[in-house]
């Protein structure tokens, strides 16, 4: 690329990390595309293969449009993989996400709690208990 040339940058809206103890943390901050979703699912599948059960921290700062091609595959993935999630903290200030999460927690096998964004350190500590 020549100096001064303009290069389009496409921000990654999902940041993913895992540690050596099977704790997965990802942050959503914008719209979710099918390629990003596929990348994250592959990462989580690899972590399940490595650790068996995972503990997760999902931080939702902002959520934009979600590619409609994700909905059905995500439901199928969740139906077969939730047994591999031991504990999950959902950290968000989006009220509707908290409400949906609390409703789902009643029927899912994982321990799930909702935390507000300022309480992310508390969420991380709870997941590690």
Automatic annotation (TrEMBL):
Protein origin, superkingdom: Bacteria
InterPro entries (UniProt xref): SpoIIAA-like (IPR021866), SpoIIAA-like_sf (IPR038396), STAS_dom_sf (IPR036513)
Pfam families on file: SpoIIAA-like
SUPFAM superfamilies from the UniProt entry: SpoIIaa-like
Record Gene3D superfamilies: SpoIIaa-like domains
Protein name according to UniProt: SpoIIAA-like protein
Species of the source: Hephaestia caeni
């Amino acid at each position: 690329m020549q100096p001064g040339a303009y290069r389009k940058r496409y921000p990654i809206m999902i940041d993913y990390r895992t540690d050596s103890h099977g704790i997965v943390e990802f942050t959503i901050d914008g719209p979710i595309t099918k390629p990003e979703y596929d990348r994250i699912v592959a990462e989580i599948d690899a972590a399940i293969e490595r650790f068996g059960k995972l503990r997760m921290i999902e931080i939702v700062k902002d959520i934009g449009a979600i590619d409609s091609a994700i909905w059905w595959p995500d439901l199928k993935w969740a139906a077969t993989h939730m047994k591999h999630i031991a504990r999950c903290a959902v950290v968000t200030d989006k009220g509707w996400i908290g409400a949906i999460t609390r409703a789902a927690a009643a029927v899912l096998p994982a321990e799930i709690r909702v935390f507000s964004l300022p309480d992310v350190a508390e969420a991380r500590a709870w997941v590690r208990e």
